[in-house]
């Protein structure tokens, strides 16, 4: 492996319920009251689409002016929740990133958040020096589940073969992005939005308890893809 593309919230950054709460508050801000059937339908769509561009998720729910308003409300809510509760890495994430980079593998931190929210996360954690590259949906024509983020990382970081790229995330959309890009390791982790079954169904080559297990997988030069029965045993 020469490049590792790691997701933020739910993968390297402990999510808790901050992201879901921000979505719920953003939807309520548009007049869809919490506790109603309409609000629950919208939140079901959000949960299904986790990992994708936040702006695109809102576009799937509302027409453009309301989608823009909802996205702004989401960013404001997320900032306020971070102010109140703070952020912390997933246990072992700092060391995992350090081990990967010490082995000469370049790290790209990917997200479905807007650039301003991504910057807030990196500022809060002091993580600007943890990555060789950071990318968000504003850097590409298409966000997840399309392969553009991973392929852009491969181009900018000088990969000579997409099979030398590893992708790690906590959602089905992370897995689809990795598989569509041609990455040979597409590792799902169980610290975020989606469970083992959904990660495997979306194309995970491995399922890990957390990103802390990723360096051993990368540094072992694991082949991919393995069959579901074998990948399930990794977690």
From TrEMBL:
InterPro entries: HAD-like_hydrolase_sf, HAD-like_sf, HAD_sf. It holds the Pfam family Hydrolase. This is HAD hydrolase-like protein. It comes from Actinomadura graeca.
């Amino acid at each position: 492996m020469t490049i590792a593309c790691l997701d933020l919230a739910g993968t390297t950054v402990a999510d808790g319920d901050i992201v879901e709460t921000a979505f719920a508050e953003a939807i309520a801000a548009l007049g869809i009251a919490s506790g109603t059937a309409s609000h629950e339908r919208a939140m079901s769509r959000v949960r299904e689409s986790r990992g994708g561009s936040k702006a695109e998720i809102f576009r799937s729910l509302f027409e453009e002016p309301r989608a823009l308003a909802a996205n702004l409300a989401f960013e404001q809510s997320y900032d306020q929740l971070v102010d109140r509760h703070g952020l912390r890495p997933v246990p072992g994430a700092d060391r995992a990133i350090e081990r990967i980079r010490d082995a000469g593998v370049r790290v790209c931190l990917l997200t479905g958040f807007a650039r301003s929210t991504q910057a807030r996360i990196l500022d809060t954690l002091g993580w600007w020096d943890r990555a060789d590259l950071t990318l968000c949906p504003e850097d590409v024509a298409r966000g997840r589940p399309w392969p553009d983020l991973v392929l852009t990382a491969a181009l900018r970081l000088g990969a000579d073969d997409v099979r030398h790229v590893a992708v790690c995330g906590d959602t089905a959309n992370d897995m689809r992005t990795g598989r569509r890009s041609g990455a040979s390791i597409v590792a799902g982790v169980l610290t975020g939005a989606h469970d083992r079954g959904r990660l495997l169904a979306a194309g995970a080559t491995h399922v890990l308890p957390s990103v802390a297990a990723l360096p051993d997988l990368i540094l072992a030069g694991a082949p991919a893809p393995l069959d579901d029965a074998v990948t399930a045993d990794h977690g």
